[in-house]
Amino acid sequence: MNTVIPPKLEANDTIALISTARKTDHANIAYATKLIQKWGYRILEGKNLYKEDHQFAGTDAERLQDLNDAIRNPDVKAILLARGGYGTARIVDGVDLKALHNQPKWIIGYSDITVLHNHIYKHIGMASLHATMPLNFQDNTPQALHSLQDGLKGISHETEIMHHRLNVAGEATGELIGGNLSVICSMMGSSTQMDTKGCILFIEDVDEYLYHMDRMMVCLKRAGMLSAISGMVVGSLTNMRDNQIPFGMNADEIIANNVAEYGYPVCFNYPSGHISDNRAWIHGKKVRLTVKHGQPSLLIHN
Fold it and tell me: Residue 294: which residues within 8 A CB-CB, separation 6 or more?
């Protein structure tokens, strides 16, 4: 697939700020707005951004309206999701993909936004930015925030990743796709299910039981999604939990065990996910992954 890369942002361009999932926090939004304006961009808040419908940022219809309004607005050059949680899957089938295809623009977020990243990549072949969101800006490292800025400016870079004992050496190229493992599994059997053939799969997760991790990996394996990829990048696996009777492997070991038979390169420790150092990467863009025994790995955006 020839991935469509949205135009880089210029000074004074407008970024729409909306939520497709949980309700938002005014303090986090205010902090993020000031920071983005300091970067030289304008902010346009969705008209329903501060709505509440139980745990959601407004009703499904209101959240979808904000997303499609931002997509259809020719002055908006990027759409930043305020936070994750849950809710994007409830509205994703109503996204105006035709308008987005006609005017590509960056979609930015992670976690629950995995649904949106994969939906637009599968249906219109457009890249998006897997990156931190306003909810986390105050806690993010400078490196995480700088990587978001670089992504908006279209600056490619290489990332050196610490060695991990479970790494599998090798080299691979392919489009980097994926996101939150739980959300990836929730897309199975839908029009958003990933086509992983020839791609490099990124996964991360938070607050999962270890047996859940194994169940999800087995699910991907049985669906043929793990055998089809050319390589794997594992991000943060945060606050993993065990039962009273131990599962017997930690989260990294569970992943390694489920892909051991394939032999493609696997890189653990990538700084992305539910951590303060949540580095941005371009979902759907071709990368080159190099993993060597006992040495840091390199992930290079082509």
Answer: 163
